[in-house]
Amino acid sequence: MRINFDHIDSCPIDSYIIDESAEAMRKYFSNPNSFHELGRAAKAENEESRNGFAELLNVQPNELFFVNDSISQTKRLIDYCILILDIEHIVTSKFENVSVLSYLEALEQGKKVKLSFIETNSTGEIDITKFERLLDNDTSTLVSLSHANEHNGLLLPVKDILYNCQINNVLFHLNIKLTIGKYDIDIQKIKADFISFDFSSEYGIKNSGVLFLNQSIKIPDNTFYILRNTLKDDEQINTPSINAIYRTFSNSINNLQKYKEQIMELREYFISKFASNFNLKHMLDSYHKKGLFTTLSYYLTHEQFGNYIAEKLDINKIAVGKTNHPYSNQTKKGEYIRFSFGKGNSIRDIDFLLSKLKELHKENIITNSNIIKP
């Protein structure tokens, strides 16, 4: 049996979601924009899901749009902001999703937009003072960031970022893919202009998500209507997928505290065992920073564990995340390994991982001792 410590990129779909999706596919197969009864039934189901999302997130139903996954939607939103809102400058972080960064760099190379990176430390923590200088009261600027980064799970200071965006009249897009369903999120309190998320890391189906468009966004009324209508025309119409992500979110909210308690127990055990067995601290602990409770990242050196650490764990049927640090040249000397936990994990899984790492450590000592023999 394979052990999964990569729930950020490889989260399984809950079995009940698969069953309910199959039932919805049999029942709601029509285009919800069709005029006939089958279409009306599919549309009614979509609107019921929209209303359910709105109630749980404390927003208005007409502020929510059903979209593809949050990464694809981030790229699409950036396009809309350039074409409809005349955005000329985008501010982001090098700790953002690699696919989004590649897209932004391509736009800059094509002279479609100016791209600026926020200065951060080695964990991705933002220097708020230097961040504010990038904004400079420029209404043609969009700030696009993730609530938690994929490298080590660091949580960004959303209130500070939002405050600086507001006083500088800058638009703010926040991706909450990694925090939705793990924290009690009230979108009205966040007050970002755009918020995107999906449930691919929360036991939901892939390629389906939600985009929030704040009704209070500071753009001219006619531009707002064009943007809203464009998002509406471009909205996903796959009723079974929409139904599935709403069920996923509702279930996550109902089990929030139970899930957190389970994962926190695993997390504390993992941290203590790594410290006692290998004298290692996770990346955020070294800086005393707050991160996702489901995620721990470690820098494992080749000197201690040998080369191809993640690949060797994979051979032993253990899946982990392997990330490239945006600012580090240390990848030649070791690997940044990310462990993201899920409700299927157990103490036994952690013990098995530790046993395999001990084997790698022992093998490496023997290999090195043989190399240095005269």
Summarize the structure.
The protein is α/β, with parallel strands linked by helices and 374 residues long. The chain is 47% helix and 15% strand. A 7-stranded mixed β-sheet has the order 2-8-7-6-5-3-4, with helices on both faces. A 4-stranded mixed β-sheet has the order 1-10-11-9.
Topology (SSEs and partners):
Layout: E1 3-5, H1 15-27, H2 37-57, E2 64-67, H3 70-83, E3 89-92, H4 98-109, E4 114-117, H5 128-135, E5 141-146, H6 158-167, E6 171-175, H7 187-190, E7 194-198, E8 209-213, H8 221-233, H9 239-254, H10 256-278, H11 283-287, E9 295-301, H12 302-305, H13 309-315, E10 318-323, E11 334-340, H14 347-371
Parallel strand pairs: 1-10, 3-4, 3-5, 5-6, 6-7
Antiparallel strand pairs: 2-8, 7-8, 9-11, 10-11
Provide structural commentary.
The mean pLDDT is 91. The radius of gyration is 22 Å and the shape is globular. It contains 14 helices and eleven strands. The strands form two sheets. A seven-stranded mixed β-sheet has the order 2-8-7-6-5-3-4, with helices on both faces. A four-stranded mixed β-sheet has the order 1-10-11-9. Helix 1 (15-27) packs antiparallel against helix 9 (239-254), helix 2 (37-57) packs parallel to helix 9 and helix 3 packs parallel to helix 4 (98-109). It is α/β, with parallel strands linked by helices and 374 residues long. The two termini are 43 Å apart. It folds into two domains: 3-7 and 255-368, Alpha-Beta Complex (Aspartate Aminotransferase, domain 1); 15-254, Type I PLP-dependent aspartate aminotransferase-like (Major domain) (Aspartate Aminotransferase, domain 2, 3-Layer(aba) Sandwich), CATH 3.40.640.10.
